[in-house]
Task: structure prediction
Amino acid sequence: MGPVPANKRRRAVPWAVLALWIAVIALAGPFAGKLGDVQRDNVVDYLPAGADSTQVAKIQQQLPGGESTELVLVYHRDGGLTAADRAAADWQVGEIASAHQLAGGKRPLTIPSKDGTTLMVPVSSTEPGDDEKARTAFVEDIRATVSGGDGLSVEVGGPSALQTDMGEVFDSIDGTLMIATVLVVAVLLILTYRSPFLWLVPLFVVGVAALTTRAVIYGLVQGFDLTITSQSAGIMTVLAFGAGTDYALLLVARYREELRRHPQSYDAMRAALRGCGPAVLASSGTVAAGLLCLLAADLNSARGLGPVGAVGVVGALAAMLTLLPAVLVLLGRRVFWPLIPAYGSEPKQRRSLFAAIGSSAGRRPVAVLASGAVLLGALALGAFNLPGTLKQEDSFTERPESVSAMRTLADAYPERSSRPISVVAPAGWVDEVLSAARATDGVASAERGRSAGGWTELSVFAKDAPETVGETATIKALRAGLDGSYVGGPSVQQLDLDDTNTRDRLIVIPLVLAAVLLILIALLRSLVAPLILVVAVVAVWGAAMGLGGLVFGPLFGFTGVDPGLPLLSFVFLVALGVDYGIFLMHRMREEALSGAEPGAAALTALRTTGGVIASAGIVLAATFSVLMNLPLVTMVEMGFVVAVGVLLDTFLVRTYLVTSASLLLGRAVWWPGALARRGARVAPVEGPRRREPVARV
Result:
């Protein structure tokens, strides 16, 4: 058989790719819908793997009944509780004791406050075990049993009530995030393309990518016991839509250029893929490599996010480099209607914003670079205004019942903590550990709990309120004085999270920088250009964190910052921010290879890629800003820092600073590659005042 004619190949390849993706969708669809069933939001899934508090949580799950459900009933009347209030509370507590299996089989103790306004009733039960749905049902049943009225408020708080309220928020993340992300991307694509049809193509393809990645993640969970939380699943959705849409914007823009040079859409697409394919591959590679560096983290939730996010980015890449080209080729030029790029035509020449930016950078590159660096440095100083560590009770943007109950307890019982510190001691040393715990400075009381598997659970109550300096001192004293025992509980978990995030930053951040730098060196065949891009994205991260410090407390009213925010925002901003540098520098390298002088190459690259980079940056920032609509402070902070950082990177760093640095360095920007040796250093372009600052591409 002879070779396949070119015309038949042009028709066959896109149809074959489309058929393959239809098969993938048919296989992936049923499994993608099951991802929500394997998401885990237990306490252990968000804790450091090697911390003592994590060991406590694991041992508690193995004790009789599994992990205990700890609640606190709070009866409160501002003017003081009446006899009727106390009688109602006594009756309701009796109903709970008779209807549920409580720890120790005893009726819970009722502890009145000194000012007579509040009753605190700690309720502990192993009835639900470690089953999340059973625990939620237990908490809801308790809330349905207790009631107030006529000035008497009754609230259910405690660690398990807080976990239930947080679980309800997590359950709503998937659907809310998906709908909001699709709407945001659709609106931005319509505004970008100004076509009634074209915007549907990348939106459809990125939707296919998101569905496929969900199925792949489900398979990884089943095959390798990968931990996926609602938080990581939500971020994966944002990454798949944001990165996928960015790649689509770059490819479609290049395809539109090539359609003016090639009569056949198939040939135009091949040229577009050859032109921007390496940049897109390197872009996705930096994001995936940066995310996979999170595997070195000790924090379970961060380590699980690494492969989940990487799969989302790679899935988006696969769809955008195969399915999107196939669909565009099959639809032909008419998909661009009413702005159809005709073969042999020239794009309408007009002075764009990015041509003007290039002119200003070319006239005064030193002033532009210096002023931009000063601005980023000044913004970074705002990081010193960041609030302290976010307390567990402040994790919601709207206060749920569990948090309100904790606030009431803190006011009514200033002399003691309402939240126990959990200690698990070897069964043979329980009496000694219990005596040592009671004798520890800052401890109000300590009680023996369940025993099994060689361990006994102790509940230790501090004199100071949860997550205060006094309670922290008590926790450290317990850890120092109780050799052979593990100290845990919600407050201890927060301390371990702080320590672990500090450790993870010291390990993961250098790994991310090294991975990104190596990929850039391989792509750009240079050391100087990659260093410029890496320094730029680190500066953007610092400025974005500084802006967070200026708005989180004063504007948003947040009382703390999630301990994982610096690390995760760094990974996202460095990995994603380098994308736009890759698009710009790769096009600059293309122009230099074609013989353009350094100044002309830099300005041409800015003019030709500036629009698509701006569109991509807006889309990515908008998708991450969707996180700000969720009722969790952690997600709001993450969405703000990444969105602001992407916008700074898009409209300040890539357009002004990287371009100015490239103009100043001339050929030296490609050192020690071959491009640096093609002649003497070229002086910066002096900002010509004609209509086009450089020759057309």
Notes: The CA atoms of residues 170 and 231 lie 7 Å apart. Confidence is low (pLDDT under 50) at residues 679-697. The longest helix spans residues 159-193. The two ends are 41 Å apart (CA to CA).
